[in-house]
Amino acid sequence: MFNLINKLIGDSNEKVLKEIRSIVEDINSLEPEFEKLSDEKLRCVTGDLKERYADGESLDDLLPEAFAAVREASKRTVGMRPFDVQMIGGIVLHQGKIAEMRTGEGKTLVCTMPSYLNSITGDGAHVITVNDYLAKLHAGWMGKIHHALGVTVGCLQNDSSWVFNPDAPLPERENTGNSIEDGDAAPPVRLPEDNFVSGTKKQAYQCDITYGTNNEFGFDYLRDNMVEDADRRVQRGRSYAIVDEVDSILIDEARTPLIISGPAKEQGQEYRRFAMIAKRLKPDVHFEIEEKRKTIVLTEEGIEAVEKNLKIENLYDVENDVLSHFTENAIRAEHVYSRDREYVVQNQEVVIVDEFTGRLMSGRRFSDGLHQALEAKEGVRVQRESNTYATITLQNYFRMYQKLAGMTGTAATEAEELDKIYKLEVVEIPTNRPTQRIDHGDFIFMTEDAKWGAIASRIEELHTEGRPVLVGTTSIDKSELLGSLLKKRGIPHNVLNAKQHEREANVVAEAGKAGAVTVATNMAGRGTDIILGGNPDSTKSSELGWDEDHNSIVSKGGLFVLGTERHESRRIDNQLRGRCGRQGDPGETQFYLSTEDDIVRRFGGDRIRGAMNLFRWEVDVPIENKMVSRSVETAQTKVEAQNFEIRKYLVDYDDVVNT
């Protein structure tokens, strides 16, 4: 049955690609003609296309010439000629579908073509990225292509707005980011993020193409709906959007509400009082933890203990409703949420860590008093709760676009949800070169200690061989635990997590070098392109030396990606695997698990451990068994299905409210 379904999906995908390849042939046939155009005449192509659109020609009619113009502008400005498979990806995005593209296939360049074509309508095209850094980097880099075609580019940031200008004055900086020998003077270098002049939000939105994060677009929509004077609105509609890492934003972040709020009354003292009570309560004695939902249920003994501390008769009387709410939040903060896993304390503030990306979510707060309970637990200033003035989910916001498209390296596992909720079809784009990545079966250990010891030993072997290693961890504390184990063994390494996010670009640039060991949270799972031999733009070696390093690492098998735990979502695991094997390079991946890991323990870890004990399995010897690996994947599928039902329910509810 599954083979039949896969065959039907495969046939459907190939049918779509076959139709698109004929369009690519039309684009390629125009290349000699566009190569002959002067820079000035190439710039005039945009005006001609706009006139033809105004006269009644469709964007589909204009596509071959628009894409050919972008390809030529790209060659002249950034020195890159889009491959045919990138053209295919661009056409899929123009058609309002999701392009699933492997790591290293150039998604950033791909979106320049459909964004340019759809900007011709004059209604604006939006390119949505997962963070401010990538928004400005991509806008500053790809903006050169659009500028050569006379197209304006804006960029939204959390605290500023920008308009692309390649002649903007260079900022003063101590370190250009170039690898230069100590003592040498650094020549002035223009980075992609330097190609901007400051502007207003309205100016950024008035540009033909606007880059920004999902949060910025969503919050601007909310603010526009709160202003009394229409002239103060900054957005001009939602015509077309390309969402980078679309599965992260439309699925992982879908239920996250964007909220504009104001302060409520001060209750800091109450939160601190309940934090003290929670510290005295014990799991399985006073309360039970529901791990899947991160909730707690008080036992009879727990209820009595709380009532005694509060000097009340019945915790669940209507008049004590607020007290029971304080109690549950305090216990969740103390016993369910862990520092350096779900959050960090930075500059005397509790900052959320995104469970899917591993990044800090500055400015975001847990709702319903949980954030205040965490602040009380950590002894930092308890900020006031908020009254909500306006709110919208990302799910609801993006469904308002007339045409929506997206890019990602991992969408196939969520194709059904993307189709049912957003009416988005997933098209798998072929790679430019054949994939050589090898995915090994999982190693499963009886205990977590045995697993970490085996991981450290495997890293040491790979480091000695001179192979670069990327180790994926699920949390900050796990990345630091492994870092300490490697330090004891004298293995040089870099740790990349939300605490060191400012070092991300440098760490990733070095991660592909011979013998490099990089320990990272989910931060390294998206938007990172690890080049074997290191990023040539950041290395001190000559081009010849880089080629030798690259070829040496290729001959040894390429980058080895080692996962230390399975995530609830298969996509997160697949994203980690996707860090290696870029552009036809070799690479290997493997996950090391234990029966004490969260997802294994929650879905049958006791049974696996019982079987290992029955056969007197040695603690340090792993099981490599397809049946066990399948049981883990089955558990992941169950969690994904549960989350899908929750998101689908939310959509159905929104549809009723919006009618």
Our estimate of the beta-strand percent is: 15-25%
Class from secondary-structure proportions = alpha/beta
CATH structural architecture of the largest domain: 3-Layer(aba) Sandwich
Number of domains: 3
CATH topological fold name of the largest domain? Rossmann fold
Describe, in plain words, how this protein is organized in 3D.
With 659 residues, this protein is an alpha/beta fold. It has three domains: 2-172 and 193-261 and 394-428, 3-Layer(aba) Sandwich (Rossmann fold), CATH 3.40.50.300; 265-384, Pre-protein croslinking domain of SecA, CATH 3.90.1440.10; 436-644, P-loop containing nucleotide triphosphate hydrolases (Rossmann fold, 3-Layer(aba) Sandwich), CATH 3.40.50.300. 46% of the residues lie in helices and 15% in strands. It is built from 25 helices and 22 strands. The strands form five sheets. Strands 5-4-3-6-2-7-14-1-15 form a nine-stranded mixed β-sheet. Strands 16, 17, 18, 19, 20, 21 and 22 form a seven-stranded parallel β-sheet that branches. Helix 1 (2-29) crosses helix 5 (84-94), helix 3 (39-54) runs antiparallel to helix 4 and helix 12 crosses helix 15. The protein is globular and about 85 Å long. The model is unreliable at 176-183 (pLDDT under 50).
